[in-house]
Amino acid sequence: MNFKDKKVLVTGGTKGIGKTVALAFASQGASVGVNYATDDQSASDLEKELQQMSSDYLLLKADVSSADEVETMIRQVLDQWERIDILVNNAGIIRDKMLLFLGEEDWDRVINTNLKGTYLCSRAVLKEMISQKSGRIINMASPSAITGRQAQTNYSASKGGIISFTKSLSKEVARIGITVNAICPGIIDTPMTQELKEATKKELLSMIPMGKFGKTDNVADGVLFLASEKAAYITGQVLAIDGGLT
Ligand code: NAD
């Protein structure tokens, strides 16, 4: 897949799945805007890798749950490249707690980062994509949205919202040449899943028919496919990359 001259923005792109996605686009010739929230060290580590690849890139520190910061970030991208071809709404967090113990702050933080962030970033790029009459938006959902999972009411609600958002937006913009799809990564080995307790990891592993966690490369392959010409007639879909989990 060749993404030469394509301008890509990956939110939450300095670690885990987002980092692999950003590097995969860069390796196929794309210019990559990599957003992150606070972790300057991981941004600087990624910058070294992008420089070694002689990539055209932007590092964009912004909280995706802030409308002002998102607007500033998109302005930075457009000032630099004058267009955005592909948006990957990947930034996401977990704050797992049983509902009885789930305070408003953990509810709001997860919904605002995962779901509101997807809304804000999509809305901010849409004007540009509409005037270009082309664009690809790829949103990161989760199996938790489909099967539910205890202690994840906030997270599964945010990801279920992302699936519904994907389907509705795809219908709004299909005739303009913009596709909107979601990916449901299963349990992927990233800093997010490394935080899980050993017992939880064991339980999750036992639920995966393929018997192993996924790799970030598995998810990046799906993202690049949905962003490519090969997926030109696919919109409003949810692609599970989960070893059979769902
Ligand atoms: P991660 O924790 O390794 O990385 C998350 C990234 O999001 C980081 O770069 C972080 O800086 C960024 N981020 C967090 N809050 C942000 C904010 N407010 N603004 C901007 N950036 C922010 O996570 P991951 O495991 O790579 O997951 C990536 C996406 O895939 C998430 O949306 C996650 O919900 C989803 N997902 C992951 C798995 C998994 O098994 N790892 C499974 C299903 C879905």
Bound ligands? nicotinamide-adenine-dinucleotide
First-to-last CA distance: 28 Å
Write down the Rg: 17 Å
CATH class descriptor name: Alpha Beta
Low-confidence regions: none
**CATH homology group:** NAD(P)-binding Rossmann-like Domain
Shape: globular
CATH architecture grouping: 3-Layer(aba) Sandwich
Give the total of domains.
1
* Average pLDDT metric: 97
Largest sheet: 7 strands, parallel
The order of strands across the largest sheet is: 3-2-1-4-5-6-7
Total beta strands:
7
Enter the CATH topology name. Answer: Rossmann fold
Structural class: alpha/beta
Strand residue percentage: 15-25%
Number of helices: 9
SSE ordering: EHEHEHEHEHHEHHHE
State the helicity in percent bands.
40-55%
Describe the model.
Helix 4 (104-132) links the parallel strand 4 and strand 5. The protein has a single domain, classed as Rossmann fold, CATH 3.40.50. It has 246 residues and is α/β, with parallel strands linked by helices. Helices cover 49% and strands 15% of the residues. The mean pLDDT is 97. Strands 3-2-1-4-5-6-7 form a 7-stranded parallel β-sheet, sandwiched between helices. The longest helix is centred in the middle third of the chain and has 29 residues, at 104-132. Helix 1 (16-27) crosses helix 9 (216-227) and helix 4 packs parallel to helix 6. It has helices at residues 16-27, 40-52, 67-81, 104-132, 143-147, 153-173, 191-194, 198-207, 216-227, and strands at residues 7-10, 31-36, 57-61, 86-89, 135-140, 178-185, 238-241. The radius of gyration is 17 Å and the shape is globular. Nicotinamide-adenine-dinucleotide binds next to helix 1, strand 2 and helix 7.
